[in-house]
Write a sequence for this structure.
């Protein structure tokens, strides 16, 4: 039954795709058939795998760095009112700049290699992670904080023993969003200027009229993004569920 | 208990913005005694405890805005030394951290103060777990405990803090009758000798536990005589029942 839920929509989609080609008489350089794309997937498997590895490395490194930077920013902002007043308007303003418009600048600064793509992925996830974690840090129940005060807690201990653990679900929901956004950043970076990666491969295939390879690259990208999203989702849920469940000899 | 308990003094008026929340009051809790502050819901009983604990009008969870709660009057110990660091607090919500085990929750105060608990601390936590009747549940997390068990953990946490003054903010009001009566017995035994100020809306609870009983109304406060018997008093003793009745009548007539 579980497999049916995946297989039925898959065949429905493939059917619609092939149906559109038959009915609309699409030439294969505009919309290649599923079979042709499958063929391209097989023939170009080495190139696809190499470029997918590059793109996914950019995505994962960008994700890790962006999450770490977002974590540090949120904790810093939650810790200090002065930092909040100084940095928050800046953060909000930075959101008014279309992130994609920065891609050429990053290419200028960080070159045509992986650096500019990592920077792009990092930037695109930085704000969602920061704001989601920061909001959670500020929403820690007041009675917990009051009790910590009565217990004679130190500020740093309140942050690390109480507020950060309490806000962890917020951080993880930011991370779930980030897993969806990060690939977008990497691909944009590759479109603007790259010599490797799935985004680069798509442009290359487009330029040479190889629509089947373009679609093959797109499918690889979609599948990998989906897997990343599911992985982060599952991992976060598993961690949160496990955290409040008893483990140990008497559980 | 490491320190001799001081008595408590609370006097004056509490305002929320410009409205008088309650007062003027003048409550004194003698050192080492258990005082029940009895009153209807919404009369501001908890605020008395928050003033004593130094958390009244404290910034709400992280926001920068202060609640406009003001208290002009005294909320202090009668020995002239500050109360901060000598108080433990127990509320209706158990305030256990869901990601910590029973013993980690009990030792939370030490962790928040940045103290190492060490072997001695863990042994003391284990002894307290046994004292409140939760043997073998050291590694449980709060989600796997019943409401009564969670309040036992909260009581053990208070005992671990080992403070001479204990403030109780309706800690048993969410429990069923039998569980509540058992918790009252346990609390009365384990907190004996400390200065306890308990806020409650339950006349039967005040009649069982209070060395002193103060009835708080919108108009002010009235001192009521407790039964002449050591605490915790049996819930079905004639004196306890008579006091419960008398207190109920006062609440009916005055609030």
């Amino acid at each position: 039954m579980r497999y049916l839920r995946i297989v039925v929509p898959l065949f429905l989609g493939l059917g619609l795709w092939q149906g559109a080609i038959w009915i609309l008489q699409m030439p294969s350089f505009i919309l290649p058939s599923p079979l042709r794309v499958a063929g391209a997937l097989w023939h170009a498997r080495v190139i696809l795998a190499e470029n997918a590895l590059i793109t996914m490395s950019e995505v994962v490194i960008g994700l890790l760095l962006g999450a770490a930077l977002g974590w540090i920013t949120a904790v810093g902002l939650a810790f200090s009112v002065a930092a909040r007043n100084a940095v928050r308007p800046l953060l909000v303003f930075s959101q008014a700049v279309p992130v994609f418009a920065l891609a050429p600048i990053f290419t200028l600064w960080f070159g045509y290699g992986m650096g500019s793509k990592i920077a792009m992925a990092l930037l695109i996830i930085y704000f969602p992670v920061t704001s989601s974690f920061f909001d959670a840090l500020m929403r820690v129940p007041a009675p917990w904080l009051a009790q910590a005060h009565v217990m004679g807690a130190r500020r740093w201990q309140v942050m690390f023993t109480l507020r950060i653990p309490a806000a962890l679900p917020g951080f993880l929901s930011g991370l779930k969003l980030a897993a969806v956004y990060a690939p977008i950043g990497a691909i944009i970076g590759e479109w603007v200027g790259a010599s490797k990666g799935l985004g680069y491969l798509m442009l290359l295939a487009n330029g040479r009229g190889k629509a089947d390879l373009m679609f093959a690259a797109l499918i690889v990208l979609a599948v990998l993004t989906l897997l990343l999203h599911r992985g982060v989702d599952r991992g976060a849920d598993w961690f949160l569920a496990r955290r409040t469940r008893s483990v140990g000899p008497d559980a | 208990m490491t320190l001799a308990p001081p008595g408590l003094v609370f006097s004056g008026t509490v305002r929320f913005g410009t409205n008088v929340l309650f007062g003027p009051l003048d409550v004194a809790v003698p050192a080492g005694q258990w005082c029940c502050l009895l009153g209807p819901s919404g009369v501001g009983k908890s605020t008395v405890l928050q003033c004593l604990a130094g958390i009244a009008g404290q910034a709400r969870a992280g926001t920068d805005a202060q609640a406009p709660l003001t208290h002009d009057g005294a909320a202090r110990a009668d020995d002239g030394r500050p109360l901060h660091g000598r108080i433990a607090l127990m509320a209706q919500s158990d305030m256990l951290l869901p990601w910590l085990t029973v013993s980690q929750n009990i030792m939370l105060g030490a962790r928040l103060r940045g103290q190492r608990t060490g072997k001695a601390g863990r042994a003391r936590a284990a002894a307290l777990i046994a004292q409140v009747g939760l043997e073998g549940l050291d590694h449980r997390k709060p989600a796997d405990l019943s409401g009564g068990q969670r309040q036992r953990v909260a009581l053990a946490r208070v005992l671990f803090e080992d403070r001479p003054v204990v403030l109780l903010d309706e800690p048993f009001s969410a429990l069923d009758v039998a569980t509540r009566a058992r918790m009252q017995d346990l609390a009365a035994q384990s907190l004996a000798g400390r200065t306890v100020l308990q806020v409650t809306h339950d006349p039967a609870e005040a009649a069982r536990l209070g060395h002193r009983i103060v009835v708080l109304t919108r108009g002010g406060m009235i001192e009521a005589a407790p039964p002449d018997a050591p605490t915790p008093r049996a819930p079905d003793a004639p004196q306890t029942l008579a006091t419960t009745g008398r207190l109920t009548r006062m609440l009916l007539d005055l609030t």
User: Anything to note?
Assistant: Residues 238-254 of chain B form the longest helix (17 residues).
